[in-house]
Specification:
The complex is a heterodimer of chains A (483) and B (314).
Chain A (H helix, E strand, L loop, with lengths): L26 H8 L3 H18 L18 E8 L1 H25 L4 H4 L6 H4 L21 E10 L2 E8 L6 H14 L1 H6 L8 H10 L16 E4 L8 H11 L2 E3 L4 E4 L2 E6 L2 E4 L2 E4 L3 H4 L15 H6 L4 E3 L10 H4 L2 H9 L11 E2 L3 H9 L4 E5 L9 E2 L5 H13 L4 E5 L5 E6 L2 E10 L1 E5 L2 E4 L4 E5 L13 E8 L3
Parallel strand pairs in A: 1-20, 4-5, 4-9, 9-10
Antiparallel strand pairs in A: 2-3, 2-17, 6-7, 7-8, 11-14, 12-13, 12-14, 15-16, 16-19, 17-18, 19-20
Helix pairs in contact in A: 3-13
Chain B lengths: L2 H32 L3 H14 L3 H7 L5 H9 L8 H14 L6 H17 L6 H25 L4 H24 L6 H4 L4 H13 L3 H8 L5 H10 L7 H19 L4 H14 L3 H7 L1 H22 L5
Helix pairs in contact in B: 1-2, 1-5, 1-7, 1-8, 1-10, 5-6, 6-7, 8-13, 8-16, 13-14, 14-16
Classes of the chains: A alpha+beta (483), B mainly alpha (314).
């Protein structure tokens, strides 16, 4: 029988407590696991890769050969969250997402938060994602960020922190869905023994939520249903699989910029019958490439004139252009104030303590403690361009110090968190590895929906804290248990 | 449906058909080569390369027509931009483009076989390796068509896919016949030497019709019979008449779904008129080569008209 030896680690382990007993969330799973033949588990583990390759869930790594497709490694031990833990988390997430939408609306209108002196104005003007073209424009339904991914980390039984907000274009939801499909195909009996909340409603909820944000010019007479399309940069984009997957699951068209054209004041797609209007575009193309007439003139990924149509109420773009302004890590450091300013409540989910290197005192502290800290670029993402003090070499720290001193405004620093671990399956049995969690949130005028589950990323290398798939991270199926 | 998606489906199925037909030509070539002396074996491989239209490219990188050079050139040589590996790559990237219009079973059949072929074709292919590749290509065709038949919606996408299949298949049958047309000239066909019947056998094998033909003709192989079978016999699924009929069926469906005809329908009606008064005698009277050349031009024109009528490209 397969054994579950208690992990030896100083972190909070999500499966096993310090005394070696299994935590509530994992009791049923462990009972099942211990009843499995080790040989069977080994075989199932090697089959999982094959199944992902067959479905085509691959991604391209930036900077590598365009044609090369890689799998994000999948670990077959689920990450499990109890119903009670999830209820507390969703309250915090919902509050944060409400605040994010209110914040974005305010930034592009009256800027009360700046007038009130709660957010320095320079943070907007230093922010590459700030779009002056959006000032004064109210997106259909008043929603800026329709699809949000909130990255969470855990350090203790009740200690969850927000590490990052992804209000621009969070990716990874296809892994949440396919990881579950794969788990159910691999271990059907497991799901009959443990009651897990389903995640499969996400695509239909997404479709409904997008359709609820039709633009003012949408004509609903004759019972016409809104046309929803997913806009992708194309088959060479690293997330193309996800774009196709979501379009397929929603029954939406998957369009590229070259399929779209502005005709009679509407965005229309070239169909076999002629041009047909698109009402809602779920775009997976960055702001800069959306409209060559407004932004990057050389972009071939976008649609010339789409921004004019957007402003005149002919189309909905989700997420709204300019939304990325709140993903900036300098803005992140103000999130506790932002949440309080717009909701009038204390934040339910805390931020990780953050030093803004733009402040002189903070910079001094950061420079004195580089060996202990994680330093990130304010506009960075994907785990690039950051320093993890405790694991960096002297030389790396020296190099980074020079960069930091040259341009302190470009950086923030955080303590190195003792991230929780969750076991992964290895040929030698279960072994603890650090994890994070990205739940996916949908916003529409009808409210906020959070799918019970999310994307758990796991650092597959022993001791590593970097969970990004571009840097050797893997994923796990994420379970929220039923009450 | 998006024009670009229709284009993806059409070409996905054209390339799939092309890869399968290429495999069959190699298979027939190998069979001939194994039963001949070295000189005639070379002749067979030369004719395989010519039928595929690769003669000039092949000769620019190879000095002789030995089997291994030929099949590696056809299957994977980067000097040949139309190699089978590239074709299968095109099948898959077109399938990815049209992913939302394919059932997941159809997509997985493409993707899984592509992965296996990609692995085998990454290195030079031995004779046993080639036999494996041919078997895999054949299985790919069957799995993809099978998945499509049993799981895909009968909407316009289905008809674009089928139109691509039959335009490509008719083209392939016409090419195979055309390459050997001199063997089928009546004056020569009465010679009836064993070499000639071997050649005819190869023609039939290349079009996957050897056993169907002998079943229908009780082993009686002659030029007239072969041309009648490969051009006019509506029962044989790779004959020109069959492919044209199947193409018509799909174009009629497209016209019904779109509420009207396009240029492709006019060209199709033309092609039908041509075929309606065709007999083997007339084909030989006018010359088989001329007949086939004209057919291929008409066939290609229908393909172009479909792309134009249904806005495949911007």
């Amino acid at each position: 029988m397969a054994g579950t030896a208690p992990p030896k680690s100083d972190n909070f382990d999500e499966m096993t407590d310090a005394g070696g007993s299994t935590r509530d969330a994992y009791v049923d799973y462990c009972r099942w696991y211990e009843g499995q033949e080790p040989g069977l588990l080994k075989r199932k583990n090697s089959e999982a890769d094959e199944s992902f390759r067959r479905t085509g869930i691959t991604f391209n790594v930036y900077g590598e050969d365009e044609a090369e497709e890689r799998l994000i490694p999948f670990d077959m031990v689920p990450r499990i969250i109890t119903a009670g833990e999830w209820r507390r988390l969703t309250k915090g997430i919902e509050q944060r997402v409400r605040a994010l939408n209110a914040f974005l609306a305010d930034l592009y209108h009256r800027q009360e938060i700046i007038r009130a002196g709660r957010l320095p104005e320079r943070l907007l003007h230093n922010n590459a994602a700030w779009l002056p073209n959006m000032v004064g424009m109210t997106p259909p339904g008043g929603i800026y960020t329709h699809i949000v991914g909130i990255d969470l980390v855990r350090t203790g039984p009740d200690e969850f922190f927000v590490l990052e907000d992804n209000a621009r274009t969070p990716s990874g939801v296809s892994y949440m869905l396919e990881n579950r499909e794969t788990m159910m195909a691999m271990f059907p009996d497991l799901f009959s023994q443990v009651a897990v909340e389903p995640v499969s409603k996400y695509p239909s909820r997404l479709a409904r939520s997008l359709a609820a944000c039709v633009p003012p010019k949408f004509d609903a007479s004759n019972g016409r249903k809104p046309n929803v399309a997913v806009l992708t940069p194309g088959i060479y984009n690293s997330a193309y699989f996800e774009h196709a997957f979501l379009a397929d699951q929603m029954g939406a068209e998957l369009v590229e910029g070259s399929d779209l054209r502005v005709v009679d004041g509407r965005v229309q797609m070239r169909c076999t019958r002629g041009y047909e209007p698109v009402d809602v575009i779920y775009r997976r193309v960055d702001d800069d490439y959306l409209d060559p007439l407004t932004f990057e003139p050389d972009s071939v990924l976008g649609v010339p004139g789409i921004m004019d149509v957007y402003r005149s109420g002919g189309v909905t773009i989700a997420n709204a252009p300019g939304t990325g302004v709140s993903d900036d890590k300098a803005i992140y450091s103000f999130m506790p104030e932002i949440v309080e300013f717009y909701t009038g409540e204390k934040p339910l989910l805390p931020n990780v303590e953050t030093w803004r290197c733009a402040d002189k005192d903070s910079l001094g502290y950061v420079l004195d403690n580089l060996e202990e800290l994680v330093v990130k670029e304010v506009h960075g993402s994907g785990g690039y361009g950051m320093l993890i003090g405790p694991t960096a070499s002297k030389k790396e720290i020296k190099k980074f110090r020079a960069k930091l001193e040259a341009n302190p405004e470009n950086y923030i620093a955080q303590p190195t968190l003792s991230l929780s671990t969750c076991p992964i399956y290895t040929s030698k049995g279960l072994a603890p590895r650090h994890v994070d969690l990205r739940p996916f949130v949908l916003c529409s005028p009808n409210g906020i929906e959070i799918t019970p589950g999310g994307l758990t990323r796991v650092a597959l290398k022993k001791g590593s804290l970097v969970v990004n798939s571009s840097q050797g991270g893997g994923t796990k199926d994420t379970w929220v248990l039923k009450d | 449906m998006l024009g670009r998606t229709a284009n993806g489906l059409f070409w996905m199925f054209r390339y799939l058909e092309r890869a399968e037909n290429t495999a069959r030509l190699l298979d027939a070539g190998l069979r001939m080569a194994l039963t001949r002396d070295i000189r005639s074996a070379e002749e067979e491989w030369r004719s395989v390369v010519s039928t595929l239209g690769f003669k000039a490219q092949y000769e620019s990188v190879n000095d002789s027509y030995d089997g291994s050079s030929v099949w590696n050139f056809v299957l994977r040589d980067s000097a040949n931009p139309a190699n089978v590996r590239e074709m299968m790559g095109a099948v898959r990237s077109n399938a990815r483009t049209a992913r939302t219009s394919l059932s997941s079973q159809t997509w997985e059949a493409v993707n899984e076989n592509w992965m296996k072929l990609e692995k085998t074709l990454a290195r030079p292919v031995s004779q046993s390796g080639m036999i494996e590749v041919i078997a895999r290509l054949r299985r790919t065709g069957m799995q993809v068509h099978g998945a499509m038949d049993t799981t895909m919606l009968r909407n316009e996408g289905y008809h674009f896919a089928r139109a691509g299949t039959f335009i490509e298949r008719a083209e392939s049958t016409a090419r195979i016949l055309d390459m050997k047309y001199y063997l089928l000239l009546p004056s020569l066909s009465y010679v009836g030497s064993s070499l000639d019947s071997g050649q005819w056998d190869q023609v039939l094998r290349s079009a996957a019709g050897a056993s169907a033909y002998s079943w229908l003709n009780k082993g009686n192989i002659d030029a007239r019979g072969i041309v009648e079978f490969l051009v006019l016999d509506e029962r044989f699924p790779r004959s020109i008449a069959f492919c044209q009929g199947a193409l018509r069926t799909n174009l009629v469906e497209l016209s019904r779904l779109h509420g009207g005809d396009g240029e492709c329908h006019a060209l199709m009606a033309d092609a039908d008129t041509h075929l309606a008064d065709m007999t083997v005698e007339r084909i030989f009277e006018r010359g088989l080569h001329e007949y086939l050349t004209n057919f291929m031009l008409r066939n290609a024109a229908i393909g172009n008209a479909i792309a134009e009528d249904y806005r495949f490209l911007a």
